[in-house]
Design a protein that fits this description.
25% strand; alpha/beta; Rossmann fold
Length: 231
């Protein structure tokens, strides 16, 4: 299985995402924001960072990058697409997932290991979980507050498009404690925390069992491989 990871100017976590893909057993393929070629990959990841300096709004300029035309087309055809942090912002700006993002409610950059609840375990990126699983995933953002109008919130809550919800504390003021959402089809998933930073023992978040032992993020990538194995 070949999973593409797109690098934008200002991407920080593209190499980490590639490593997570490799650990999961797939082959990472480096893609470039200025190209119009997904190189025939089976799935796509938009990584975290500060693409184009997050000018205008976080993810706004990146959503118009040349390669995004191919990403939008692939997503509409059912190709699994994962947006992480800045990638979530890009997918929201490209209207591939609902909602938008504003500055964190406390106006501060935040970095913490965040507990999440899995709300939807049927998407292309969450099927290795069980609904209501509680996981620990690192997060780091300044513009992570998920917002949407009341009609959109009601729709995505009713249709099961809320995929992850913050537990213990809402770190950025996101409405309804929403940490991640999907499109209606479930092949496009976006979340603010970083699963690629929780895939390898010794380098993940602390857990009750041991320091740096958390690998809950690995199931994101394993979920995609499950889907691709059936295609």
């Amino acid at each position: 299985m070949r999973i593409g990871v797109i690098t934008f100017p200002g991407s920080l976590d593209d190499r980490d995402a590639q490593r997570a893909v490799r650990i999961s057993g797939a082959t990472p393929v480096a893609l470039w924001h200025g190209d119009h070629d997904l190189q025939g990959v089976d799935a796509v990841i938009l990584p975290g960072g500060f693409a184009y300096g997050d000018y205008l709004r976080a993810g706004a300029i990146a959503s118009y990058a040349p390669i995004m035309a191919e990403v939008i087309d692939a997503a509409n055809k059912g190709v699994p697409v994962l947006g992480i942090c800045n990638g979530f912002q890009m997918l929201a700006e490209a209207r591939l997932v609902p909602g938008a993002h504003t500055r964190n409610a406390h106006q501060q950059f935040i970095r913490r290991d965040q507990r999440l609840r899995v709300e939807n375990a049927t998407t292309d990126w969450t099927n290795a979980f069980e609904t209501n699983d509680e996981i620990i995933i690192p997060m780091k953002n300044a513009d992570g507050r998920f917002v949407a109008d009341s009609e959109t919130l009601a729709r995505i809550e009713g249709q099961g498009q809320v995929v992850f919800r913050y537990l213990d504390v809402n770190p950025n003021g996101s409405l309804n404690d929403i940490a991640g959402v999907s499109n209606e089809r479930g092949n496009v998933v976006a979340l603010m925390p970083h699963p690629e930073h929780a895939t390898e023992p010794g380098f993940g978040p602390d857990t009750p069992e041991a320091m740096s032992s958390g690998i809950d993020g690995l199931k994101f990538f394993e979920s995609a491989l499950r889907v691709l194995a059936t295609v």
